[in-house]
Amino acid sequence: MAFSVNFPLFSIVLCFMSAVLAALISGRAARAVTLALCALTAAGALILMFFGIRTGAATEYLMGHFPRPWGNELRFGILEPLLVLLFSLVMLLTLLGGRKQLELDLEKSKSNLYYMMCDLVLASLIALSYTNDIFTGYVFLEICTIAACGLLMIRQIGRTTLAATRYMIFSLIGSGLFLLGIVFLYAVTGQLLMPDLKAAIVSLWANGSYRTVLITGISLVSIGLAVKSGLFPFHFWMPDTYGYATPSSGGILSGLVSKGYIFLLIKLVLSVFTEDVFYKSGLSNVLYVLGAAGIIVGSIGALMEKDVFRMVAYSSAAQIGYIFMGIGISPDLGMLAAVFHIMTHALTKPMLFLASAQLSQAAGGKKRENWLGAAHFNRAAGAAFGFGTLSMIGIPLTMGFVSKYRFALAAFEKSELIVPTLVVLAASTILNAMYFIRVLVVLYSSPAEDKPRVRIRDQIPFAVSAALLILMNLAAGTAAKPLVGLISRGLGLM
Amino acid sequence: MTEVLQKLWDVRVFLAAVVLFAVGFVTLLLHRNLMKKIIGLNIMDTAAYLLLTALGFIEGRLSPIVLGENTDPLLYVNPLPAGLVLTGIVVSVSVTAVLLALTVRLYKRYHTLDLDVIYATAMKEHGVN
């Protein structure tokens, strides 16, 4: 047994210890601790991913060496470390790039608490990715919700508190459904560990007993996670929540937290509910329809918005729709597209939020009409925003293009889904282009008045983080094959 | 008729749990008053715990504390559901605390607990923030 199999547990414990530490030290020190923590967990995940590639098998890690069915387990193949790597890196870059804005938005005496919440979010994201026990999943869902709420509340204006309350309420409705679903599944199977639960579900399904309870439980779990991640029609909290939070929080919440929930769902679908039950019971079709509707509704919402932050936030609702549409299409290619889009969105959306914050500051307002020529005053932010929008629209060479291509490819697996999927993809691309290019045009037209220029030298952290995010996006967009291969191998191991 | 009643009586705890869950869910989703929303949340969670507790109890068996000679596992009920309920209670206490803190903050800012009024006020202030 290689030493590196301990890394998942180490990184979760390390996150919790850093959170405790961050509560005790100054804001600056807490930031250093958190950034170092993100780098460490990313490195651990990278090593673990290569371990998974080398062994070509998933590893089950028994906590405290208690065998099934008594113990709690972690499980990791290739995809889990890959996503943890993504989560850690994006959190690192988001915190780094949003540093200036954070200093403005945080009360000095409380800024260490913000980093504590970040540590907790990271801990729960890692735990959600690695856990092999559905109830542990529930506990970490709630930890994630509370910590995410803390990230919102830290900016003390009325609207943010209101947004945090609404976020909390929707999240708790989702968790309630998830919990009830687990109870239903536990009632008929008596299992909580994912492999045992899967075996029990398969045997119950085969002999036809308790079908209604099984379907109800699985639906409750799936819908609970969908509500938590903001799938249409539960997306109404999104624009407020992401739009008024401090930009780093908006980026972390939309780019990472919702993805953690979705990844748990993907994991459950593949390694617990099984294709047979999930795809033949029609549940996948519900997710497909809601996802497709979410894409259109989110895009139209974004089109109507004048506030650029809220527009970017609405576009998140559409992106969540894409991911659920992929999950609904099929367990192989559809799931692959969904995971790829998780990465696309995680690498793009935080950058868009950070760049919007910089540009609003340079332009003196968050409305589109304030932004006239803002890119000339802050070139780095303008470039980051420009690239982010291109990736969101799906211009070739960016990850957004590969995502959309993959969704289309997945749709061709099922003849009845080809037309609706392609129509939705085309419509959403046009809508995306309409609202994003409109902003780009305003951004790069000649300014009405001269405003102070923000030089790149004065915002090196932001420029570095945006450059890295753009580079990763371009690398994965131009040479998508290795990444797609990796994801597909990872899905195979789940 | 008596058979149906007997069947309903056998699942009475589950029925109660479903009704409680629905009451809590609707209150949490639709009620405008923040305090009542929080109460709804607690009713909803309690329903899930009731279901778990009822499922975990087997009539005639002992609570899972091994005393003396009785080591036969069939004498005891499964301790896991009770453990899950305890974990769940801890979780719902913490989310309730967070929600109450948010409510206090909203009340201090807007002097009301009505979410619609708060939302309307916040919309009016939109330009300010």
The main β sheet of chain A shows up as: 2 strands, antiparallel
The count of strands of chain B amounts to 0
Q: Given the C-alpha coordinates, what overall shape of chain B results?
A: elongated
Structural class by SSE content of chain A: mainly alpha
What would you call the quaternary organization? heterodimer
Gyration radius from CA atoms of chain B, angstroms: 21 Å
In percent terms, what proportion of residues of chain B is strand? under 5%
Number of domains of chain B: 1
Structure description:
The complex is a heterodimer of chains A (494) and B (129). Chain A has 494 residues and is mainly alpha-helical. Chain A has 2 domains: 277 residues, no CATH class; 213 residues, no CATH class. In chain A, 79% of the residues lie in helices and 2% in strands. Chain A has 20 helices and 2 strands. Chain A is globular, with a radius of gyration of 22 Å. Chain B contains 5 helices and no strands. The longest helix of chain B is centred in the C-terminal third of the chain and has 31 residues. Chain B is elongated, with a radius of gyration of 21 Å. The interface between A and B is medium-sized, with 29 and 39 residues.
In short:
The complex is a heterodimer of chains A (494) and B (129). With 494 residues, chain A is mostly helical.
Write a concise keyword list for the protein shown above.
heterodimer, A: 494 residues, mainly alpha, 2 domains, two-stranded antiparallel ribbon, B: 129 residues, Helix Hairpins, 71% helix, elongated
